[in-house]
Every structure is written in structure tokens, then in C-alpha cells.
């Protein structure tokens, strides 16, 4: 049975830096999008909320109009009863019957007054709700236009970067699978902890990339030998020499050219 080839530290460092270069490019693509996806999502929620509000307000107006119609029907019914009682009063035989019908007539007149009062109240409510509907429609139109603009902006960015991002994500997985779990977990942990997502950096002008802390010459020499994985004590990042970094950058640039 053939013995499995042992991966050297240098090969591990190269694989890690390749992965870093790929992941950094994915970060750049996503940074171009910035907050756009969240803005679009928030605007969609707001537009949905405004549409729901309009629907509820329209339903309220419709219900109030139904109530007004019912009150108008009530008025007509009361007028019909008044006419009926007045006709009956002309045929009564005694004062008691006359007074009873007079009371019924008076009650229906009060009912009409109450219906008319309710109709006025409902009409005021309809006017108020129609004012809110107009304001809501204006806001909805404005936010819909804003949403359409942002969606168009996002779609353009996605169209431009979708193919490249998909390719990069596939390569990121491919390179991740070639790195042992312990090292990959360390890389992911560091990457999640630092602001710019740089877990592997090269030494630039005697300091780790993006840092002002100088690396002692002895440590720099050790890093250049590529015999062990060195962690920067200040930033917690994995350090590599500038030559290895340049070689891998050229390789990855060619890969995606």
C-alpha cells in the first residue's frame, strides 16, 4: 500500500495564503454591495407594510360607507313608520290611541335624528381616513420608487459579480478541503475575529501586513525558512514571508485571469 505523501509546512502556508487571497476577493465583491441587500430588504418590508395599511384603511372606509347606507335605510324605514302612524291617527277612536301613536311617531323622529347624527360622524371619519390614505399613497409611491432604484442598483452589481463570486466560492471550498481541519479552524477563527478578514498576512517592511508592530529579525528569518507556522503576537494573524506571498498572488491572479 502506497504511503500517503506528508504535506510540508510550506505547502500548508501556500494553501492557506491561496485561500486567503480567494476569500479576500469574495469580501471585496460583497463590500461593493455594502448595505444594499439590507436596504432593499428594509424597503420591501416598508412597502409591504404601507400596502397593508392602505388595504386596512380602504376596508375601514368601505365599512363606514356600509354603516351610512344602513343608517339611511333606517331613516327611510322610520319615515315610512311615521307616515303610517299619521294615517292611523286620522282613524283612531279615542285619545289614548292617538297619544300612543304620537309617542311612536316621536320615537321614530328621535331615531331619525340619531341616524343623521351617526351619518355625520361616519362621514367625518371617512374624510379623516381618506386624508390618511392620500398621505400613505404618496409615501408608498416615494418608497416604491426608492425600492425600484435600489433593486436596479443591486441587480446590476449582482449581474456584474455573480459569475465571479460563484467561481470564487467554488475555489474557496476546493482550497478549504485541501487544508487539514485544525489549521482551517484556526484560519476561520482568526478571520472572523479581525475586521478586514485577513487571517494570513505577509511581512512588509519588517512588520506584519497592515500592522505597525515590527517583527524581530530572528523571527523574520524563521518565517522565511517556512518550517513552522508563526502567529503574530500583536495581531494574532498567521505570518508568511513576502516572497511566498508574491508567488502565490501571481499564481491566483493567473488562475482567475
Task: List the topology elements.
Elements: H1 9-33, H2 36-89, H3 95-177, H4 181-193, E1 200-204, E2 207-208, H5 217-225, E3 230-231, E4 238-240, H6 242-255
Parallel strand pairs: 1-4
Antiparallel strand pairs: 1-2, 3-4
CATH class of the largest domain: Mainly Alpha
What structural category characterises the helix and strand content?
mainly alpha
Count of extended strands? 4
Second rung of CATH, namely the architecture of the largest domain: Orthogonal Bundle
Profile the largest sheet: 4 strands, mixed
Q: Strand fraction band?
A: under 5%
Q: Explain this structure to me?
A:
This protein is mainly alpha-helical and 257 residues long. The chain is built from 6 helices and 4 strands, in the order H-H-H-H-E-E-H-E-E-H. The protein has helices spanning 9-33, 36-89, 95-177, 181-193, 217-225, 242-255, and strands at 200-204, 207-208, 230-231, 238-240. Helix 2 packs antiparallel against helix 3 (95-177). The radius of gyration is 40 Å and the shape is rod-shaped. The chain starts with 8 loop residues before the first helix and ends with a helix.
